Amino acid sequence: MSTHDASTYEETGLDAILPAKELIKLIKNNNHGDRYPLVMDIGCGPGNTAKLLAKELNPEHIVGVDIDPDMIAVAKQHNAMANTDYYVQDISQEWNQWDKSLQKLAGKVSVIFSNYALHWVRESEIAAQNMAKLLSNNGIIVIDILYCGDIYRNAGTDERRAQLERQLRYPSEQEVVGQWVTAFKSVGLNRIDIKYWEPKSIYPVKVYNEFIQWPVNWFKRFLTDSTGNEDMDKVLRELILTDRARKMSEKSPNGEDLIEIKQELWNFVIKK
Ligand SMILES: C[S@@+](CC[C@H](N)C(=O)[O-])C[C@H]1O[C@@H](n2cnc3c(N)ncnc32)[C@H](O)[C@@H]1O
Fold it and tell me: What positions does the domain Methyltransferase occupy (predicted)?
């Protein structure tokens, strides 16, 4: 099963634009030469961020990679550009099994960008090895890592929290962020700057009601086998909404109800 539904993603247009713009700002702040020979967008999804990168950085060449063939099909259909190529590729696959065209890019990628994608990757060491292989001398990696919060904190009673902790073994924030720091250091990338921030996105309630299935599916990867007969989709949906959603009094220009969603992101800037 794919991690996301490409068509839903495309229709809603929820491309996490604010976090992506922040990453692009970081790329610009760290590149005083103002030249971008080859930019790689890892977990590029339907290509919205590749399009943004093209507009903002005007690179010579962009390569978008995503594990999901449906996403790459949407990217090719809707966000094809003259200097852009899209490939189906898992960032955490061993290098010698990578697509041969991508292997040719070893040591040539000047900017590795990834927005809202790497929280799906558990094999951070292999992913970091691959990024180190791709990066050119003086290259830069600019990525964000999503931490989905301590959703147990809204469990209600201590007893319910303990039960949820048995059902869902979600790693701590230290583990999530620390595993990436360790992975990059282990491949010699130790010039690492990290910044934490909490961007807020506003969605029509109707749209977020569909979108929420993605974080629900993501959390479900951490379920243990002690869930019993509970409807975990429903439980997770409620916990996520209690933890990070705020109903807004304002309406959209079309009169739709709006919801504000808090995100927790760790931005990494890594230089060779
Ligand atoms: C929430 S989407 C973000 C898409 C895009 N970066 C954006 O900001 O709009 C996350 C993407 O990461 C991709 N992804 C998940 N695991 C991956 C992996 N191991 N290698 C490459 N892409 C992956 C998913 O298929 C999905 O398209």
Answer: 39-144
